[in-house]
Amino acid sequence: MPKAAPPRTTGLPSTSLLSSLAPLLHEWLPRQRWFAGKGRPVTDFTLLTTTELLPGHLHLLVRAEHGPQPLTAGTASGPADCYQLLIGVREELPPRLAPALIGRASHGPLAGRSVYDALQDPQSAALLMERLRTPGTVGPLTFEHDPDVKVPPGLTPRLLGVEQSNSSLVYGDTFILKVFRRVQPGVNPDLELPWALARQGCDRVPAPAAWFGTSEPAEATLGVLQPFLRGADDGWTLALASLADGRPFTRQAYELGRATADVHLALAEAFAPVTLGRPQTALIAAAMTERLEATAQAVPALAPYVPGLRGAFEAVAGLPSAGTAQRVHGDLHLGQALLPADGRWSLIDFEGEPARPIAERRRPQSPVRDIAGMLRSFDYAARTARPANPGWATDCRAAYCDGYAARSGSDPRDTPRLLRAYETDKAVYEVLYEARHRPDWLPVPMAAIRRLAGA
Q1: Number of domain units in the chain
Q2: Cross-strand pairs, 328
Q3: Residue 70 neighbours by CB distance under 10 Å
Q4: What's this model's pTM, rounded to 2 decimal places?
């Protein structure tokens, strides 16, 4: 993110607002699930923009500067990250908003008042929706919508309880708004790709109905509103239920393979694919090797398997071509697939891996990367079952590839070295992620590491 522009404020002194907020954010921000700087102390804050939506309702872009992170392989997080915050300010916080409390300011213009996460306030959430319904600008913020989609007024908002790298609000069980917490310059793929797919007539992905962004300190996407698939179950939940009940999941896996192929075919129409020749293929293998070695430095448990894993990447480096590259989902797994009542899979969350820079996520990549991600997800589900059921994963993996091949005419198993390399690269990413966020889960990707290293 470029150097800070002067904060844009209305009704509050910009020079002293940070004196009220910084002590509170130092405590509150690192505790949030979407905070990217895990394990790094926050050393300073800078207000990039401050926009008063209404009195007592502030939209902030805040740059958090922090110390080094010992586990940095494969991440885009540098010495500073930009976060989007919607905060409310009240003299006293009602009991219903107690979980939203950020803190009570003791200095500056907000001294003596309660500061809270306004996304948890239905009044603030309703205000945000009204801004999306009426396109225009508010300070550096720009609100836009698809004129062919009617968003009715008065939809009751609720914040989804499970937060990952973003926050999501559901309005009247009709629309869902994803608010990107960590902001990077550029068009977010979760707006760009669903919009392009809608123009291609692909109904496998909910089309954007409205979105908002900022022009300062750089152009960036801040949030996307899409139809909410009411009553849909995600693939991860359905897979775990299948494992718990001892039921096969092969039919669903086959149809999910067809859905993935539908999306890949539509993306290839929307964005021209490119051929990956020998030099590009060697660069892909080199990047995978670099991530492997960096992760092994960060996670010692991986080190004994490095020679075997490196072999998977060397096998790709020697190929004359890795096929074609195109725009892809970028972070495909069972949790990114929804099955509504009509039984037709939809794919969501085209943001890609949030830890990587947006410019990297927008590059053409091999479709095999998405396929490998889903194959790893079947393995994850099977390994978390009690007892573990690797045979279930084997059946699902085969059915998924069968479905993909039936729809696309291209079977990913016909390029085994490429598929193994992308699956290995994904498993290495999982090792780093679990070591950083969920150490108890580390044995799950390590089981795949042992298998892949001996392949």
Answers
A1: 2
A2: none
A3: 9
A4: 0.91
